[in-house]
Each structure stands twice: as structure tokens, then as C-alpha cells.
Design goal:
By secondary structure, this protein is an alpha+beta fold. It has 11 helices and 15 strands. The C terminus is likely disordered.
Length: 448
């Protein structure tokens, strides 16, 4: 249950300075320095007493093996240490990969990006952005909206039973698991999670692929012109990629469910790291995934319905009821069925999310004497869910990151799935109907 945020950095990174910045930033985020007091009935946070771990692998450094206590990607045990670890890896001279690994109980991905921005602010020698509670609290919508929903696209329908009906459907819908992959690629081939030949540092447990600036702008513009968002296109692409993957693996997926995180914070909020994320679920059959334009349209309509009816909040409200009897909650988390096929997290434009107090050159942050050239991220893989997909925009470029249960679905699955999802994102965007009078005149909002 850990998520990863990844910065690609150029320049002479001072790892001792970065370690100090990590510890300084943790000073104003209590949960980053806290541990859990173990108790089966009601676990609780202890007083902050544990600094995040920092590991550095300059060129030529020995990399611990997976069975060693200092292996960089070992699970974070928040009963014994901080739920945050930072790993700096020198892939080539003055070319670094800085990975922030966070246990999801510490905070959600949006709070994690803000904490990462604080780290880079301290590295630069400046003060992080102040905490902020917006004076205009976001209106909590229940029932109808001041702005009516658009007519649903062909093949879609507004859920007739409201949240109660959707809950009943959720209980009876068993999503497909991502099957073991139909193909393997040799270790070290292009796109595997191994670092480039001759580079230092450990293999990362995820794969990141990028889009060009032109592709990124085109995807967003075409989605906006069709009344959708980058998030809608990405969810549809993952559904189609998983359906094709399972079909090719000989395990056709009848039903696909995507977990979609949704922030519960009012817009503009910036506070100490914590988890204020709700979850919504988008269900489609494999047959409903065949037409990309219809699929994106139906996902866009459903996403809007979820926002209007606070479905992500309702999920947490349901869990709070179950949590009144902790043994039931314990059993719920151990049901041997997947709650979803995959989780898709779209942060959007990460620069404003981080708000690092550092100079900038175009869309790139310049902390100290280094340049952050790319940022990516991937959500946790929950029990029974074998695929996590993260999408981040930085410096005008979209970055797609996948992580999966490689031991179950195959060692090459992360790259092969990433390539399939990348192709489906482009295909879904190209398939959207375009009306000249609806084409936006400028770039749509980066916050997807």
C-alpha cells in the first residue's frame, strides 16, 4: 500500500543536502514522522518521533539485494519507522532519479506532492509555501446540481437508483483480475524496469513512459472539445487495454472496474500531510469497451455524476459504518476477491500541486543548482488489484507510470501494459468526435 513520486533531476545533486531538506520538510508534517501503535481493535498514531529514511546510490555504489534489510524497495513498516522513504539514484553522471515512497496511510498522493514540494524548497534554501485554508469552502452537493448534467451519450444512462442503487450494483459486480501476461521480454530489453546498461542504482518497481508536448496538448484539447477530461480518456484507455490484455492471455474479462481517487479537500487547501481521499468506482463490461468514443463519453458522464452526487464521500461513509465493528472491517479487507481491476490516479499538472518555492525555467523547477526535468507518480496496488496507473503532467508533457503485481502477471507486464495503455490513450483521443464550434481557443486547465 505504498505510492511512488519520481523526479528526474539533472545536475550535481548534493545528497547530504537533500537528506537534510527531507528531514526539515518532515518537521511540519507530523504524520510523516509518526508510527502506528499496533492494536487489532483500534490502531492509533503515536507522537512524531521517527524521521523519514533517506538512501543514496551514487554511481558505482553497491545495491542491496531484495533479501537484505536495506533493500530500497522493501515495504514500509509504519509500526517501526516512518511511512516515508526517499531514494536518490545516479543513473549517469549528473543525471539522478529521486523517488519518494510513501505508505498510503500517511497521506494521499496530492498531499505527497505538496510534501515533495516542501523538500525541494528546503533544498533550495527557501521557505515552503504556507499552509492555507480557503475562505471559500467548496459547496458540498447532495442530490441535484445548480448546473444540470448534460444529456448522457449513446450507450449511457443516469443511474436510476441513485447512490443506494449504485451500492447494490457494486455489491453484485465482481471485477476481472489482470491475468498473467501472454508474452515476456528478455531482461534488459527496452522498456523493462531495469536501468539503462552501465548505470548505477537499483531497479525501480514501476515503469514510466512519456508523451511529447504536442501529443499531450492534442489529447487534452480533443478531450475538452468532446466534453471530457484527460482523466476520462485515461480511464477508458485502461479499461480497453486490460480487456485486450486478458483476451490475449486467454482469460477474457467480462467485467472491468476502475478505482478512481477523488480529493475531498476544498479547492486551494494546503495543510499538513494526511489522507483526505475518497474513492469512486467505474464499472464496464468488455462489450461496452469496444467503441472508444462511446466509452470515453460514458466515463465522462459517470465521472460528472460521481462529483455531483458525492459518490467518493459515500464510499468513505459506508466504510465508517463498517468500522464501528472492527472485526467486520478486518474481514472486508481480506475477502479473496478484487475490489477493482485497476486503480487510475490522474494528478494533472503537478507543478502547481508541489508549489516548490524555487526558481523556474519555463515549466521546470530549479532547486539549488539542479533542474527537475520530469515528474511522475503511481498509486498503490491494493490487495486483489493487480494494476496501478498514474498520470502526471510536468513541463507540458504527460507521463504515464504503471506498477503491477509482477510475480502474478509476469515480469514484463508493467512495460507491456504501459505501452498498451499509452497507445490506447492516443487512440481514444483520436476517436473522439470533434465539433469546430466546440474547439477551445487555448489550452484547457492542466488540473485534469
Amino acid at each position: 500500500m505504498c505510492f511512488f513520486l519520481i523526479c528526474t533531476v539533472e545536475g550535481a545533486l548534493d545528497t547530504a543536502r537533500l537528506a537534510r531538506a527531507l528531514h526539515q520538510a518532515a518537521g511540519r508534517h507530523p504524520l510523516v514522522r509518526s508510527r502506528i501503535a499496533g492494536c487489532w481493535w483500534r490502531p492509533a498514531w503515536r507522537e512524531p518521533d521517527s524521521d523519514p529514511e533517506f538512501l543514496a546510490y551514487p554511481s558505482g555504489a553497491r545495491v542491496p539485494a531484495p533479501d537484505e534489510p536495506s533493500f530500497p524497495w522493501r515495504p514500509l513498516d509504519i509500526r517501526r519507522s516512518s511511512g516515508v522513504r526517499m531514494v536518490a539514484i545516479e543513473r549517469a553522471p549528473d543525471a539522478w532519479e529521486v523517488v519518494l515512497m510513501v505508505q498510503h496511510s500517511v497521506c494521499d498522493g496530492l498531499a505527497g506532492t505538496e510534501f515533495l514540494g516542501d523538500v525541494w524548497s528546503h533544498y533550495h534554501g527557501s521557505q515552503p509555501a504556507p499552509f492555507r485554508t480557503p475562505t471559500r469552502v467548496a459547496r458540498r452537493v447532495s442530490g441535484t446540481s445548480a448546473t444540470p448534467l448534460p444529456a448522457p451519450p449513446a450507450g449511457s444512462h443516469e443511474p436510476p437508483g441513485g447512490l443506494r442503487g449504485e451500492t447494490a450494483k457494486f455489491a453484485g459486480f465482481i471485477p476481472a483480475m489482470v491475468a498473467r501476461g501472454p508474452a515476456e521480454i528478455a531482461p534488459g530489453e527496452r522498456g523493462s524496469s531495469r536501468p539503462p546498461a552501465g548505470s548505477a542504482g537499483p531497479n525501480v518497481p514501476f515503469v514510466t513512459l512519456g508523451f511529447t508536448r504536442e501529443q499531450t496538448a492534442s489529447i487534452k484539447l480533443r478531450a475538452a472539445a468532446a466534453g471530457a477530461s484527460l482523466n476520462d480518456v485515461a480511464i477508458a484507455a485502461v479499461m480497453r487495454a486490460v480487456a485486450a490484455w486478458n483476451e490475449n492471455a486467454g482469460h477474457p474479462a467480462r467485467q472491468i472496474r476502475i478505482t478512481m481517487p477523488a480529493s475531498l479537500k476544498p479547492p486551494g487547501t494546503r495543510a499538513a500531510a494526511c489522507n483526505e481521499m475518497g474513492y469512486a468506482f467505474l464499472d464496464r463490461t468488455a462489450a461496452e469497451c469496444r467503441n472508444p468514443a462511446d466509452l470515453v463519453g460514458s466515463v465522462a458522464f459517470a465521472s460528472r455524476w460521481i462529483q455531483e452526487h458525492r459518490a467518493a464521500n459515500a464510499f468513505l461513509e459506508t466504510l465508517s459504518i463498517i468500522d464501528r465493528f472492527p472485526p467486520a472491517f478486518w474481514l472486508l479487507t481480506r475477502i479473496p476477491l478484487p475490489l477493482s481491476t485497476a486503480v487510475v490516479s490522474c494528478i494533472g499538472n503537478v507543478g502547481p500541486r508541489m508549489r516548490a518555492n524555487v526558481p523556474r525555467d519555463g515549466g521546470c523547477d530549479l532547486p539549488g543548482d539542479v533542474r527537475i526535468t520530469a515528474v511522475a507518480g503511481v498509486p498503490p496496488i491494493r490487495p486483489g488489484t493487480r494494476l496501478g496507473v498514474g498520470l502526471v503532467i510536468y513541463d507540458g508533457r504527460l507521463h504515464l507510470t504503471t506498477a503491477c503485481a509482477a510475480a502474478v502477471v509476469g515480469g514484463s507486464a508493467q512495460f507491456l501494459l504501459a505501452e498498451s495503455i499509452r497507445a490506447e490513450i492516443l487512440a481514444c483521443a483520436d476517436a473522439l468526435p470533434q465539433s469546430p464550434d466546440r474547439l477551445p481557443t487555448g489550452m484547457p486547465d492542466d488540473d485534469a
